[in-house]
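Table S2 (text version). Query chain:
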Amino acid sequence: ETLVVAPQSLSPIQQMHTVYGVHSGKVCGTCFSFLRTGKNTTYFKCAKFGTSHGAGTDWRYHHKACGLYTE
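Corresponding structure-token output:
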């Protein structure tokens, strides 16, 4: 399997769209890989992109879904 890497100058969601395309009519928040984490504050993450304890991997519910979208 060939690893495709998008330019780091793009935002995380732009990297996902560049590598995997866009899934029309769907948003990240309804994807199986969309995670909610945090104790006092809720943070959203994408399991497919990778997670960390920093803002660099924070996600938005209303992002257009990428080609890895699964229900």
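Notes on Table S2: The chain has a mean pLDDT of 89. The longest strand covers residues 22-27.
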